[in-house]
Amino acid sequence: MDFQQKDLERRPKIYPVFLPNLGCRTRCIYCNQSIMTGETLPDLKEIAQSLQNLTDVDEIGYYGGTFTGLKPELMEKLLSVRPDIPKRISTRPDVIDEHVVEILKRWNVKTVELGVESIDDEVLKNSKRNYTGADVLRAISLLKDRFEVVAHLMTGLPSDTRAKDLESVRILINTGVSLFRIHPTIVFKDTELEVLFKQGLYKPQTLDEAVNILAEMVILIEGHNGKVIRLGYHIPQSQLKYVAAGPYHPSFGDMVRSRVVRMIVERFGVKEIAYSRRFTSWVKGYGNDKMSVSFLEISDEDGIFLDGTPFSDMLRRYSESIKY
After folding, report:
1. Which CATH code, of 3.20.20.70, 3.40.50.300, 3.30.470.20, 3.90.79.10, is assigned to 3-250?
2. I want to staple 187 with a disulfide (CB 3.0 to 4.6 A). Which of 192, 202, 230, 244 is the partner?
3. Cα–Cα distance for residue pair 152/118, rounded to 1 Å
4. For helices 252-268 and 311-319, angle between their N-to-C axes, nearest 10 degrees
């Protein structure tokens, strides 16, 4: 399936249920979940009531905590509400085993969003994730043939490098994972990472650094027929006051997509970009309109074409040339 065709697929309507820190057995160095979600621990009876009345949704998503870190009876209680609606859950690699997989399969779980963050053991240790790259691969092997797996990655964690980020992507692609969410590390107030930042022991990525590395990760993933379904954090306006440092921008995803286009233009000396209107922000946004290329908006085809070559083909060519 071509890149543009994939992008046209209708996104599922997901009803989100936030379970901040529920099921989490450790506190990661960067985490203040109640700040990030703006939520307090929900009443389970209220959750059940709200789900019973749902109409016109494709999935119910349990976010914010470590779903498979919950006691099995609580997992089943949450999943058993509206068994007719497929579920998606977010969790960690170290709380996936055969028994958990059986529960998820029994109760119509369709998608598992796996908080990988990195495959590198040093990065995982210094971020206090409390699992290893081997644990990630073991979890994926249990999940990949039974569920849609979305790998969540972070850049700019303690001890992280560009090479480690790209290697994490390469390893995950080789497991067969094709869907990704990626965001740079943001320093939130009242976290251990904020303490290190204030002590000068942690330096967050600049916005430009974060955009560059995520653009390369997008090229590597989508050049190998994967898809990045989310770039950057969504932080509600009311929660922005809790951001202490880091490369946050409300339009981070568009910035990365624009950088991908620019990198392809510069790598291959592109002279003309033809594009359909809905891709204007990618093609001409964030300084791209000043590139020395001809821009041609088209209506007879949907997509982006660089010197006549489909965007997906250019991604593939670029991904094959990335060195790290």
Report:
1. 3.20.20.70
2. 244
3. 9
4. 80
Specify the pTM: 0.93
Specify the higher pLDDT residue, 233 or 292.
Answer: 292
Query: Could you tell me the pLDDT band of residue 324, with boundaries at 50, 70 and 90?
Result: confident
Q: Where are the alpha helices (DSSP H) in the chain?
A: 3-8, 33-37, 44-52, 72-80, 98-106, 121-126, 133-143, 162-175, 192-198, 207-222, 252-268, 280-284, 311-319
What tokens does 184 get?
């740079």
Query: In the chain, what are the domain boundaries?
Result: 3-250, 262-319
Q: What is the pLDDT of residue 3?
A: 47
Cβ burial, residue 19 (10 Å; 0-12/13-18/19+): buried
Cα angle value 274/279/283 (rounded, 5°): 65
Q: Which of 231, 90, 226 has the alpha carbon at shortest distance from 170?
A: 226
